[in-house]
Design goal:
It contains 1 helix and 8 strands; from the N terminus they run αββββββββ. By secondary structure, it is mainly beta.
Length: 146
Amino acid sequence: MKLKVRSLKPALAIAATGAALLAAAPAAQAAPSVAHTLEVKSATWGQLHSGDCQQDNGTIVLRSDGTGDWSADTLTRHTHSGDVWHTNLDFYTTAGFHLFSAGEFNSPRMNDGNPPPRYHWTAHFAFDPAEFSGVNIFKSLQRYSC
């Protein structure tokens, strides 16, 4: 019995086209990334005084990724040696349980003047992100001196 093949050219052309398409396709598709919403808690202190120093708008920002920022404007009304504002921050739960402390942050060395210059300064810090949900930001405690 004799088998007659009409033409393999069209079949080979289709196979070659399919192979080229497969070669251009990625071997595996990455799962689509899920964007997580970053939660933020913040609080601002009004005007605070220590000796002849003043702090305005001390602001703490905590993020659910375990990062935080502190910023403030400070000034001194009278100094001969340059004053430094020192801030320590403690974070508590609603029930008053202490969760963590965030450093000691120090202002730049300040000088007086008429009017006294304002010194804006910031500090970045990290904390355990697992503690974020427990923080009652309005129970945050700032200990300070100058």
